[in-house]
Structure formats: C-alpha cells, structure tokens
C-alpha cells in the first residue's frame, strides 16, 4: 500500500491531539515537578526561589528516606523472585493438562482482578497480630505461637522483617499474572522438542533447565521488568495495609512523598522524592525499551 502526502497529513492531524495531551500532561508535569524540586517551596504559599540540589542533598541525609530506599530494594528483590518462582511453578503444573485446569487458572488469576487497596485491607485483617492467622494457630492448639507480622520491628542486615507481610500480599496478587505469562510461553514450546529429550533419557529437571527456561527467557525478562516497575512505585497496597509502620519498617518513597507533599505541604521536598522515584523506574524501563527497539531495527 502506497501512502500519499495527503494521507500522511491526515494521519498526523488525527494523532496530534493525543501527542499534545501526552506532552502537556505527562512530560510537561514531569518538567514542572523537577522545577519545583529545585525551589524553596515549603508551605501553602508558593516560592520558586532556586536552591538547586539542596532538597536532594537534604533528602538523602534524611533517615526515613534512607530506610525507604532499603525497603524498596529488599521488597523489589523478594517480590520479583517470589512471583517468578511461584508463577513458573504454577504454570508448569497447569501445563501438565491436569483436571480442572480452567478452574485452577481462574483461581490463581482472581487476585489480579482486585485492586491493591482491596488486597491491603484483606491482608491487614489476615495478618493482624490479634486475629486472622494468629488466631487460627491458637484454635489449633498452638497458643504460644504469635507473629507480629507488619508490627514487627526486628531487622537483619537492613531488612525489616515486617516487609514479609507486604511481600506476601503483593506476591499473592501478582503470582497469577506471571503464571499466565509463563503458561503462554510453555504452550508455545514444541512438544516434539520435549519428547525428543525424554527419549534421550533427560529427566524433568534437565528438561526445565536445558529447554524450558531458555525458551521462555524473553517472557521471564518481561515479567521481571513489569514487576520491578510495580515494586518501585508501590503505594496503595502499603497505604491500605500497614502505613509507614512503627519506626518506618514498612515505609516506602511513595508513601513518604504523599505525606510530605499533601499532609506536610513541603512541596519542593515532595517533588524531589517523586523525581527520584521516576529515575529509579527509568533505570529499569529505559534499558529494556532500548534493547527491544534495537532488536526490532
């Protein structure tokens, strides 16, 4: 099909409104937030006096923000590993053509239909130190068994044990997402390839290691990118489930930014936090997009 110059003009005219919306309401606001982060705006009344990187320097000196960065690092690692591992495990089992496959697929995918707010409220009750799972242990006769879950202030090597409750809830919600991705990848592997390996005497573990994992590597990478993006800007689950927690054990940059900006009215500091969050997400997304576009070229 040959496009004339008139066709190109019509196409450009049709997409122009969308381009303008993206430029103004995404990149324009990003630029505005960056400008505010360099200012002395600290209160209801705006103050655009330039202080340059002072807000960023003070932010990295802030103990709460240092804890937030550590929490984000540990949460991201454990969240991605858990979702990938359990998602692959479930996909591998379902791919064995078990009875009731449709039912199990629906059950595992159901949490993804919920919002993080609903998940947070649900798991907040389930992991409440006085009810939920702890009361279940007591009903079973384990009266001395009690976990603090998200109220636990113990830590090891910078890892706050209270984060386990957030990791558990987030994994429960997104495990089905990775399962669906891996299941699609497993269904795309030629059956003859696996059967040939079995005839040659290859065991289950060997087939997984030598055939299945290499075949679905692009899917694993895509899942890790999506999960990493979610974990770096996590807010609603934490806000609904635990808040910042005692001694900020379950605090994250998104929560810190919200409280700083909309409760403390420290707009310049809040903008600085949001820009740092944007940079963290960009470190994950940009290399992936670059490699994808390079392959297409």
**H and E order:** HHHHHHEEHHHHHHH
- CATH hierarchy, class: Mainly Alpha
Helix content: over 70%
Q: How many discrete structural domains? A: 1
> How does the major sheet shape up?
2 strands, antiparallel
Q: Output the structural class.
A: mainly alpha
Q: Termini distance?
A: 21 Å
Share in β-strands: under 5%
Mean of all residue-level pLDDT scores: 90
Counting DSSP H or I runs of 4 or more residues, the number of helices is: 13
- CATH fold-level assignment: MetI-like fold
CATH superfamily: MetI-like
Side by side, the strands of the main sheet go: 1-2
Low-confidence runs: none
User: What gross morphology would you assign?
Assistant: flat
CATH architecture: Orthogonal Bundle
Please tell me about this protein's structure:
The two termini are 21 Å apart. A two-stranded antiparallel sheet has the order 1-2. Helices cover 70% and strands 1% of the residues. It is flat, with a radius of gyration of 24 Å. With 297 residues, it is mainly alpha-helical. The mean pLDDT is 90. The protein has a single domain, classed as MetI-like (MetI-like fold, Orthogonal Bundle), CATH 1.10.3720.10. The longest helix is centred in the first third of the chain and has 33 residues.
Helix and strand topology:
Blueprint lengths: L4 H33 L16 H8 L1 H32 L6 H9 L6 H11 L6 H7 L15 E2 L2 E2 L2 H25 L3 H9 L4 H12 L1 H16 L3 H6 L11 H11 L3 H30 L1
Antiparallel strand pairs: 1-2
Helix pairs in contact: 1-13, 3-7, 3-10, 4-7, 5-7, 7-10, 10-13, 12-13
